[in-house]
Amino acid sequence: MDGTIRCSANYVPLTPISFLERSAVVHADRPALVDGSRRFTWRETRGRCLRLASALAQLGIIRGDVVSVLARNIPAMYELHFGAPMAGAVLCTMNTRHDSATLSVLLKHSGARVFFVDHPFLEVAMGSFKLMSEANPAPPPLLVVISEFPSAGDSPGSLEYEDLLRRANPNFEIRWPAEECDPISLNYTSGTTSSPKGVVYSHRGAYLKAIAAVLLSNVPAAPVYLWTVPMFHCNGWCMAWGVAAQAGASICLRQVSAGAIFAAIAEHGVTNMGGAPTVLNTIANSPEAEQRRRNRAPATGKVVRVVTGGAPPPAEVLFKMEELGFEVTHSYGLTETYGGATVCAWKAEWDALPALERARVKVRQGLQHVALEAVDVKDPTTMESVPADGRTMGEVMFRGNTVMSGYYKDGGATRQAFAGGWLRSGDLAVRHSDGYIELKDRSKDIIISGGENISTIEVEAALYGHAAVLEAAVVGRPDEHWGETPCAFVKLREGARVGADELIAFCRSRLPRYMAPRTVVFVEELPKTSTGKTQKFVLRDKARAMGTSRSKL
User: Fold this and answer.
1) Quick check: keyword Ligase in the entry (predicted)?
2) What is the pTM assigned to this prediction?
């Protein structure tokens, strides 16, 4: 329009770094991080992040370099969400359940130049370095140990996190993004060892999703946020940045258990938290003695707001959560959508519904959050929207500013995911008359266990590696704690003899523990179509008919 211009006065690239900068000034003395007896204000947190950025620059990190981390929900993990991008780097958070083999593949694929490792995972990290050196003479990334006690000297020749911060420049000049679509983080969709998919997030997308996460989670000003969501998972569903936007206090939780959750609520007056349905199940089925600890909370009588995602929680779990004073909001999304992309926004008229009907409505995936342009259920071939009849299934698709930039080093997969101008999820759903969507199946047969995606193809490949296995197919079996776990249907070679426990142990020696089957069923034949494809829907029915399993934690 005539008379308008775009300049530094009216345009600055969006980045969540600005959340930290604001909170460090406006709310300088408010608590930002609480980790047992360690506490940091927002002024102190900003100073530590600035020193971290300086330390990375001193190590030779330049714009666009990948910096990786393997850590629990501890202060260093949170600080890296700001310190790495403040140095112009791209943060790559690794799943703490990965084994050395998976880590070696992902470190190589990401090209990480520095690897921050929380001390409990040092052995796994060193194992990944050994595998990398055996496969490639190129040096592994520079190791920085996050020590419990900095003077312990966990690994000879390695650097130590707190020591790096002490020696860094406190007046480092932030490397702001040149463009708001510059990458801020790299998140791997699974622990695949064949074709890893690294999802690239931008500064703009992270900024917008952080604000959306605050809104869909009903996060107030100065919240007390309990870190039950792993920060390695979609950057904590982008709440690592969202909490900073609201100048909240992050309560670090190193081990997720009902006792630890209730204790944190009692001690800190937690207002918000999140977690996969497994976390809700842990809370709902915890001993009454642990539940009573909440009664000593400073915020007794106040609701703790919880956002859950993944497989819908059972109605019984929702009922119990409400009884215990938790308000549950259901969200749904992918790594490719920065975590939660939809929210089942509650409507006042649903309050009058019977309890069971309320639960059925609450577990729907709902509609897009305010920072996403659209979510639709479409015929994947014609790209036409399916009728809003609650019966016709189609593929869930997304469009908007909080959709990934693409898959790192995989343009072909990126183009395939964006075919037709929408992000294709591979998930099947229906749309109800009110527009809300509800998932019905997963076209790619992905198993969601404890909030983590498990590729059945990878598990089947591990099973096929056993000499006694002729054919194998893996589906999800309902599980009381994890939501679902891998269930393997196996046909043995003629004359072969092997037990279920041996096959499970065999898989655990080749896969991260959470990916290995928890159940093995031996069959004479696998059900197949006329073209020889395994009918997994038949096997899923059989797995469900077996009932809900009770996995050991």
Assistant:
1) yes
2) 0.84
